DNA sequence: AATAAAGTTTAGGCAAACCTAAAAAATATA
DNA sequence: TATATTTTTTAGGTTTGCCTAAACTTTATT
């Protein structure tokens, strides 16, 4: 499989997850920073190879083998991200571009050994689950804190806003990956929330609750 | 720089080292498993970019900037080889193909951090020196044990024959990377050598001494 | 329902990196 | 030295993945 084919499969997988429906050439091409005509071309090729199902004017959908291929690439991407963050001290924003390159290296042994070296991690530094070697992923509900109800509890797995001011704020409040966040109360007038984190209660603004992801 | 350009530069560097002279398109194309016409084409491109000096029918030579580029790629290759061997338990023969892919990943930070993570190694698992970030290499005399004289001492940095039977033999005799080998005696009739390794004397056949590399 | 707008596909090109076959130059041999 | 052989280059072709522009569908608007 070529580098380009891999990128298309991965993109189709993500967009399919996000929208639920068939992925249009327009959306796909924008996502990949290419022109719609290029997407059409590649989609046709992937269809001939039996990796996607494509009906002209109806968008694409991954089929079984396409999804497994996509998940294998995502596995590689997330293992490399974990490596960069844990072993090479890369910060969140530096990780992506490099992992994007590393995910295309072809060697089964490399990935097996990397997985072992990292201690068989289940989640990457963004909190996303790492598929196993067969392409199985832990089903995970990823929500924003703002989508929780009073009484709910979630584990912090990432953020949406990665500006340094927001990350600094989280640091000050002792909110980090793995923090258990319990929703105490919801204020209707400003949509802020009172939450409990490690026996400490604090109030998070709507902006804050919308930018913190939790696994429930 | 494209992947192909990088591979050509690296090959020209090696062949130039090996033969001392300008590298012919014939030799270069064979080394890269391509046709001479393809080599000519690429050489012309690299010449236009100012990385090599090329005169039709006279072969190619790297110039200053081409050599620095080549050494940067070799640096990446050797750091990755070290990583694969030291951290991921790859054996000598499995290393090369993967490092060949990893060396083309583009990220200065990645290489800096990898170097740090590995403890700034000076030699790769084959005993070859790792260039620094500016493309400077430690000049190193790499010799076969058979080229040494009685009284000489060398440090084992690699082997030529990588068959498992030879590697097993070395293992049994406790000869490994880093072993200090002192030449005690040379037998003229069969060209075998008596050597001392860690206070133990043993006799190595001509075949053996020709297949062990040392740094002196 | 007719038309306008938006999205998609087709057709024809381009650059990179490879190829084959033929022409040209360099080297070896009679 | 003349000819044969080998090496190198040139010319023209192929594939992959991208592009633009034009044609065609689908969807939205009046």
Keywords:
DNA-binding, 8 strands, homodimer, 216 residues, Arc Repressor Mutant, subunit A, 3 domains, two-stranded antiparallel ribbon, alpha+beta, 17% strand, 8 helices, SH3 type barrels, globular, six-stranded antiparallel β-sheet
Query: How many helices of chain A in DSSP terms?
Result: 8
- pLDDT under 50 segments of chain A (min length 5)? none
Total number of domains of chain A: 3
Main sheet makeup of chain A: 6 strands, antiparallel
Number of strands of chain A: 8
Q: Within the CATH hierarchy, at the fold level, what is the topology of the largest domain in chain A?
A: SH3 type barrels
Distance between the termini of chain A: 36 Å
Report the oligomer: homodimer
Summarize the helix and strand pattern of chain A as letters.
Answer: HHHEEHHHEEHEEEHE
User: How confident overall, as mean pLDDT of chain A?
Assistant: 93
CATH architecture of the largest domain in chain A: Roll
The helix/strand class of chain A is alpha+beta
β-strand amount of chain A: 15-25%
Q: Write down the overall geometry of chain A.
A: globular
Rg of chain A from C-alpha positions?
19 Å
Helix proportion of residues of chain A, in percent? 40-55%
Strand order of the largest sheet of chain A: 3-8-4-5-6-7
Give the name of the CATH superfamily of the largest domain in chain A.
Ferrous iron transport protein A (FeoA)
Protein chains sharing the most extensive interface: A-B, 18 and 18 residues
Q: Give the CATH level 1 class of the largest domain in chain A.
A: Mainly Beta
InterPro entries (chains A, B): DtxR_MntR_Metal-Reg, Fe-transptr_FeoA-like, Fe_dep_repressor, Fe_dep_repressor_sf, FeoA_core_dom, HTH_DTXR, Iron_dep_repressor, WH-like_DNA-bd_sf
Protein name (chains A, B): Transcriptional regulator MntR
Function (chains A, B): In the presence of manganese, represses expression of mntH and mntS. Up-regulates expression of mntP.
Keywords (chains A, B): DNA-binding, Transcription, Transcription regulation
């Amino acid at each position: 499989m070529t580098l380009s084919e891999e990128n298309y499969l991965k993109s189709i997988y993500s967009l399919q997850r996000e929208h639920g429906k068939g992925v249009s050439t327009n959306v796909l091409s924008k996502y990949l920073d290419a022109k719609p005509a290029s997407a059409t071309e590649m989609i046709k090729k992937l269809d001939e190879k039996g990796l996607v199902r494509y009906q002209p004017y109806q968008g694409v959908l991954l089929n079984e083998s396409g999804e497994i291929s996509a998940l294998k690439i995502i596995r590689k991407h997330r293992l490399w991200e974990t490596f960069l963050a844990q072993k090479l001290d890369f910060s969140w924003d530096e990780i992506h571009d490099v992992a994007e390159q590393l995910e295309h290296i072809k060697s089964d042994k490399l990935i097996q050994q990397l997985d072992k070296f990292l201690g068989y991690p289940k989640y990457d530094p963004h909190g996303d689950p790492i598929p196993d070697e067969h392409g199985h992923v832990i089903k995970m509900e990823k929500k924003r804190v703002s989508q929780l109800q009073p009484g709910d509890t979630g584990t912090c797995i990432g953020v949406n806003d990665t500006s340094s001011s927001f990350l600094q704020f989280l640091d000050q409040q002792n909110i980090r990956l793995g923090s258990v966040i319990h929703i105490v109360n919801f204020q209707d007038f400003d949509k802020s929330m009172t939450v409990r984190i490690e026996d400490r209660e604090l109030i998070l603004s709507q902006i804050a609750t919308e930018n913190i992801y939790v696994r429930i």
